[in-house]
Amino acid sequence: MQEIATLSKEEIKATLIATHRENQILWRKWLNQTKDFPAKSGLYRYREGFDTAILNLAQKLHITLGVSSIPAKNQKKNTVITLERISVLPNPPAVTCLYCHEPLFRKSSKRWYCPSCKVNFRLRQEEG
To answer: Which of 15, 50, 14, 52 minimizes the C-alpha distance to 30?
Structure first.
């Protein structure tokens, strides 16, 4: 009979974060190679779905993807912070949290989430 491997929550957490980072690198490579607007739109939808799946899986397994630097009394509600802009360079470094410097997860086209700090970041609407 084969042995069944058991994984600790730390191993699962490390795997989820590593998978997210590898997917982020691959996604940027695909985005830089794509010139067609509908294809780019599909890549953004793929990215949002992948990030949501990682967050949902962590939530169902009761895994916190990071340690928060925000005091406990402030963690009851997700905070929304407006960002001036996120740089979209050919090979930018990962978009990171202003507090813990962990990679952010894309929740929608203008909203990013830091599971460590439980903070939502929103891109500011361009006026004009």
So the answer is: 50
